[in-house]
Design brief:
Elements lengths: L1 H4 L2 H17 L25 H5 L1 H18 L4 H22 L13 H25 L6 H27 L3 H24 L1
Helix pairs in contact: 2-4, 2-8, 4-5, 5-6, 6-7, 6-8, 7-8
């Protein structure tokens, strides 16, 4: 059973890419460059219920299972246990983001309560996958290539988060920069998961 749990991080990394693509096929005229991933399940979306069923709920479970695996398989190594906790937090917030949709208008000046919860959960998700690779970067427990790659993924996430903020101001292509920012976090998860399995 533990051997199967070790692969949940890899599965989650692949699932999120496929899940967003598949869900978008049911959303007429959806733009990956101009629209956020969360707009797939936003209020009034043609796939408001389908999107979290494809993405948030199964992904949340995969994150939680992988985090649990890290904790139970590295009980003598606190940094890895903390990484496991961060992955579990990421999973729980993924569920919350699915249950509480964002508003249909991503640029609304008066967001609903659901949208505020969604936004704060998304922020915690972002932070959890910054803390986790930071731990790897500064832990001598991990090999140098993994530490360097973790640092690279953090820098990539920060860079495209900055680009995302600018894109929001200009109302240009925030969807593209959101995907690239989160993409670096998912890339880190994929690389780290392969290290764990190897």
């Amino acid at each position: 059973m533990n051997n199967l749990l070790a692969y949940t991080g890899i599965v989650a990394s692949i699932w999120i890419v496929l899940g967003i693509y598949i869900a978008s096929r049911f959303y007429p005229n959806y733009s990956h460059s101009k629209q956020f991933c969360s707009e797939l399940g936003a209020f009034g979306s043609p796939i408001q219920k389908l999107s979290p069923a494809i993405n948030n709920y199964p992904l949340g479970a995969l994150f939680v299972l992988f985090g649990y695996y890290l904790i139970i398989s590295h009980q003598s190594h606190l940094p890895t246990e903390v990484i496991g906790v961060m992955v579990i937090i990421h999973g729980i917030c993924t569920w919350i983001c699915g249950y509480f949709p964002m508003d249909a208008d991503a640029y609304t000046k008066s967001p609903s309560r659901s949208c505020k919860i969604h936004t704060w959960s998304g922020l915690i998700m972002l932070l959890s996958f910054i803390v986790a690779p930071l731990i790897v970067t500064f832990s001598s427990f991990y090999p140098l290539p993994l530490r360097y790659l973790s640092a690279f993924c953090i820098l990539g996430c920060f860079y495209f988060s900055f680009k995302l903020a600018k894109a929001l101001e200009l109302k240009s292509v925030p969807g593209l920069h959101q995907r690239l920012s989160y993409g670096f976090q998912i890339l880190w998860l994929f690389i780290y998961s392969i290290f764990v399995v190897a």
